[in-house]
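FIELD: query
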Amino acid sequence: MKKLFGAFFVKIIVTAVYNVYFHPLAAFPGPKTAAATPIPFVCRLINGRLVHWTTSLHASYGEVVRISPDELSFIEPCAWQDIYASRPQLPRAEVGKLESGVGEKAMVTADNENHARQRRIVSHAFSDRALREQEYLLIKYTDLLISRLHDQLESQEEHPQEVNICKWLQFVTFDIIGDLCFGESFHSLENMEHHEWVSMILKGVKFGTRLTAFHYFPPASTIMQRCVPSSMMAKAEHHYDMTRQKVDLRINQKSQRPDFMKYILENNDKKGMSIEEIYSTVSLLVLAGSETSASTCTAAIWFSLKKPSVMEKLKEEIRRAFTGLEDITVASASGLPYLHAVLQESLRMHTNEPVALPREVNRPGMRICGRIIPEGVSTVQIHQVQTY
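FIELD: result
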């Protein structure tokens, strides 16, 4: 046993020395600890400090930083085109990839070819035509949100308390995305609390992040997957079963209401999406279309309140444009330039993507912002917070 541990320790030391001094990425700037082992990167990923850590690294080392033995982070504007829009496209990195867990890979985790095939179908649900037809749902739940907030304020008239606007925005966005995906909401606004399934999704994101971290250590990843508590696995299976049941129920309704499923089913064909791919993609759409929107709106409100001059100008533009709630539509709201600017600036300052979208360098002579990146041992990415 001592010899086994001794050999393991020697391997760690040799690997660290190789990574720091002889690895193909050894010439790129960054802390030696991050070059030697992925542990510093993984620790920040688990404790939620990854954004702050990479920001400090770019401040110290410049526009390109080696953040783990095989990974480079870029913040140069030209890197976006080279990494995400090159032809042929760089494949998505397998390490750290989020899986939906309900069978086939969802659109956001599939390889480039399958991503394009699925995106062709799903894109119809986000067209201008679809948005116009879905507007009544947005208005319905927005009106309910405003009504519920009024009720909250009236009930606190004698004893005012703080209102957690982030929670209320989560209620409305989950209700909207539930109706768009499954033909029924999660009734969060009506009940003024998260649906059991929604709470499970939010907890699952944190747990998934921890499992993702172990992907950087293949043996540990296998061990961790086998050590997942049976209660957690039961909850995951329950979530997947609910996804299937809700999707199947919506399909069997054969309804023509203008939700996501209508456009997916209407435009699906033999070369389109399998039922398992629909399960996977809809499962991720529930999270991607709800929590991200709630976070962005929360950030916009927070930043505006921190800048009273911005809030006053925003209120002035909105109140000048509308005399009542019935005047507010998707078309009329899209014509407010200052509101649009506030939302764009909120997205820049508070991105909803806490991690990057890594790509693997799979061909020789790949250049990113003029730098040659070694093939086969390099994962490249842009961290949006640090870049913008």
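FIELD: remark
The radius of gyration is 24 Å.
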